[in-house]
Amino acid sequence: MPGARFYTLLFVVFAVLSLPLPAAAFSFTEEEQQERMEELPESGTKLLRQLHCPASLKSAKIATMIGEVHRSGGGRSGLYGSFMDSSSPDWEGRHVTNRAVYGNVVDELNSGFRLLGLKTYSSAEINAQIARAEQEAVLNNDPDAAIAAADRLSASFMLKGLISTHSQVNRVVNVDEVFVTINLQLIDRQGRQIASAQMSETTFSDADVLNTIHNLVKKQSHTITYKLFREYCQGGK
């Protein structure tokens, strides 16, 4: 039979094992959980509901113009945008995107603006009133063109976006990667920038870049809308 000393030692071991661990022992797990929470996509719709925008926004209109920076011979050579269609002479020279993608990008952004009560325009409606040259001027940061376009559309806001892509070799896996960036600028009827935002994504060159662009905007459109109008709404203008 084991002696009293053995049972005493066994009791001490069980007592130690049953003690709660110090808080520091849980800190790593908590940090991991926090990181996982931060990696989850934000609920843009929930964010938009948090905005308390002035009543004047409910009757305001916003026109969105999206274009793509295209390059020739290593340098920037111009823009392709939602103003293009298959009859345009530059249609075959498109670098990455096409009309369907531009339209989808505009539609996704418009869905967020409508949640704020804004009235929106489709690409077709904008094309019917604003010529290609004027849209290119707006996308090239011409304030006079932006003011003229806003007046013609009776738009209180203009959103202009530029899609740019570049590729490079990932030397780790020896595969070409494509970096997609969409820069957005929100401007008022006087051509002044109110806010800006950026979306970016990386994919492999053999992936569907067009689909990547569309999914990027679809995933972030409501969050981007929140960021663009947050200061305006908090200012109560």
Task: Give the topology.
Elements: H1 4-18, H2 23-39, H3 44-50, E1 61-72, E2 75-81, H4 99-115, E3 119-120, H5 123-129, H6 132-139, H7 143-153, E4 157-170, E5 175-188, E6 193-204, H8 209-234
Parallel strand pairs: 1-3, 1-4
Antiparallel strand pairs: 1-2, 4-5, 5-6
Structure commentary:
There is one protein chain. The protein is of the alpha/beta class and 237 residues long. 46% of the residues lie in helices and 26% in strands. It has 8 helices and 6 strands. α4 (99-115) runs parallel beside α8. The longest helix has 26 residues, at 209-234. It is globular and about 55 Å long. Strands 1, 2, 3, 4, 5 and 6 form a 6-stranded mixed beta sheet that branches.
Task: Provide a brief overview of the structure.
The protein is built from 8 helices and 6 strands. It has helices at residues 4-18, 23-39, 44-50, 99-115, 123-129, 132-139, 143-153, 209-234, and strands at residues 61-72, 75-81, 119-120, 157-170, 175-188, 193-204. Strands 1, 2, 3, 4, 5 and 6 form a 6-stranded mixed beta sheet that branches.
Which descriptors would you attach to this protein?
237 residues; alpha/beta; Rossmann fold; six-stranded mixed β-sheet; 6 strands; 46% helix; globular
Overall radius of gyration? 26 Å
Distance between the termini: 86 Å
Number of domains: 2
List unreliable stretches of 5+ residues: 12-41
Mean pLDDT value: 76
The tally of strands reads: 6
Name of the CATH class of the largest domain: Alpha Beta
Tell me what portion of residues adopts beta-strand conformation. 25-35%
